[in-house]
């Protein structure tokens, strides 16, 4: 993004002082990066977020997240609400996740150092997405002052959620299941956007949609034989490998906004017996989809691939087990003319002096749950950085501050 500034339009606009304090914002981010919070291990950070909000009389609540069947996970989202003056005005959801990927071993320093150098703050999850979390927390604090002055018409709901990086997105899933999103009219998710956009983008940018995802879980059954006489058996490993290659060649869908779908084999496991033809193999394949590709379509594509190969092995095609059939990462697109998009465009011009680029996310996240499952117009706007999910991850601190300012101004505009 450009250096933070105030445009002529912002100078002319009457209203409260909306800018957040840059030093406080970066300090908040640094404190959170120094708290390790790999997915399923977010308790300490959730407690920090709760106490930070509580210290500012922002009335946080813990929201229980429980999944006893597959992961045996127990954790808590943290939510808080600002109540506007007009019950008929729209309600805006601000969503950010507290968890990170598991700590990467290749760091040459403390992966939770929070070190700042040349405008970059380093640490696991600094960009994905504690930078975005700090931004919405500071925006929420600023909006609380607007509410106190009677200048906020609609409600604003802050949700700091668990397990976005984990297998099922249990935190935001639970928001939807418990009806918390039912009363919302639109959502902002402060994920890092440009670094994972479908095309090359730089901040300022708004991402208005994302591809969806299915995960093939395929079992291949062959016939065991002694490894010195492979012709007497049917290698499930070889057939699974052939199928993995064939799946990468299927015709995927395309969309004018979301681009093309994709197929990527992720895992092939056939056990570890010595001198035996593998009789069973397990294959997992990622399938990113666009609007127009249903679960039935995705299954049929795999079935055709199997039929084309005429394998000797038996093949069972299914999808990754999930706690509930409703847990799906569906693709979505938010209309460029939606009021939230307009509010974010105006706020971006005010804060940065530039028009934001419009783009679309290449992968999936909690925004899919909100944009598809919850049916909310959802926009991704977040600070950028590099090396997300890897050693040396960092976020640009000036962009964290700018996102906080953009979200604050856009929320006031959208909520009336």
Topology (SSEs and partners):
Layout: H1 8-12, H2 22-33, H3 43-55, E1 61-67, E2 73-82, E3 92-97, E4 116-117, E5 120-122, H4 126-148, E6 156-161, H5 170-177, E7 186-189, E8 205-210, E9 212-221, H6 236-247, E10 254-255, E11 259-260, E12 262-269, E13 280-289, H7 295-309, E14 314-319, E15 332-333, H8 339-352, E16 357-361, H9 366-373, E17 378-380, E18 385-386, E19 394-396, H10 397-414
Parallel strand pairs: 3-6, 3-7, 7-17, 8-16
Antiparallel strand pairs: 1-2, 2-6, 4-5, 5-19, 8-15, 9-13, 9-14, 10-11, 12-13, 18-19
Helix pairs in contact: 2-4, 4-10, 6-7, 8-10
Inertia-based shape: elongated
Low-confidence stretches: 2-15
What is the N-to-C order of secondary-structure elements (H for helix, E for strand)? HHHEEEEEHEHEEEHEEEEHEEHEHEEEH
Q: How many helical stretches?
A: 10
Enumerate the strands of the largest sheet in spatial order, edge to edge or round the barrel. 1-2-6-3-7-17
Radius of gyration: 23 Å
Largest sheet: 6 strands, mixed
- Summarize model confidence as the mean pLDDT: 94
Class by alpha and beta content: alpha+beta
Distance between the termini: 27 Å
Q: How much of the sequence is in beta strands?
A: 15-25%
Share of residues in helices: 25-40%
Number of strands: 19
């Amino acid at each position: 993004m450009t250096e933070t500034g105030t445009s002529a339009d912002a100078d002319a606009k009457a209203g409260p002082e909306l800018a957040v304090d840059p030093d406080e914002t970066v300090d908040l981010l640094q404190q959170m990066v120094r708290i390790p919070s790999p997915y399923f291990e977010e308790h300490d950070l959730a407690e920090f977020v709760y106490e930070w909000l509580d210290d500012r009389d922002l009335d946080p609540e813990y929201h229980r997240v429980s999944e006893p069947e597959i992961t045996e996970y127990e954790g808590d989202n943290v939510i808080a609400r600002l109540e506007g003056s007009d019950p008929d005005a729209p309600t805006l959801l601000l969503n950010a996740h507290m968890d990170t990927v598991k700590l990467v071993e290749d760091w040459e320093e403390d992966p939770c150092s929070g070190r700042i150098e040349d405008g970059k703050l380093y640490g696991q999850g600094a960009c994905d997405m504690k930078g975005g979390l700090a931004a919405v927390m500071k925006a929420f604090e600023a909006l609380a002052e607007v509410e106190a002055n009677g200048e906020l018409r609609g409600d604003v709901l802050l949700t700091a959620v668990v397990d976005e990086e984990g297998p099922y997105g249990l935190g935001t899933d639970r928001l939807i299941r418990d009806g918390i999103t039912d009363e919302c009219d639109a959502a902002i998710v402060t994920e890092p956007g440009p670094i994972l956009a479908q095309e090359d983008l730089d901040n300022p940018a708004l991402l208005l949609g994302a591809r969806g995802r299915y995960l093939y879980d395929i079992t291949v059954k062959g016939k065991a034989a002694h490894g010195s006489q492979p012709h007497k058996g049917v290698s499930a490993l070889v057939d699974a490998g052939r199928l993995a290659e064939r799946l990468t060649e299927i015709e995927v869908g395309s969309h004018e906004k979301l681009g093309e779908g994709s197929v990527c084999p992720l895992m092939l496991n056939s056990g570890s017996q010595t001198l035996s033809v593998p009789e069973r193999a397990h294959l997992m394949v990622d399938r990113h989809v666009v609007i127009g590709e249903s679960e039935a379509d995705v299954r049929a594509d795999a079935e055709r691939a199997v039929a084309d190969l005429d394998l000797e092995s038996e093949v069972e095609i299914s999808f990754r087990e999930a706690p509930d059939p409703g847990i799906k990462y569906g693709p979505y697109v938010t209309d460029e003319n939606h009021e939230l998009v307009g509010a974010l465009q105006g706020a971006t011009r005010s804060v940065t002096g530039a028009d934001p680029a419009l783009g679309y996310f290449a992968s999936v996240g909690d925004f899919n749950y909100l944009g598809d499952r919850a049916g909310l117009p959802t926009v991704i706007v977040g600070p950028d950085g590099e090396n997300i999910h890897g050693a040396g991850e960092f976020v640009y601190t000036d962009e964290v501050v700018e996102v906080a300012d953009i979200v604050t101004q856009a929320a006031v505009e959208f909520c009336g």
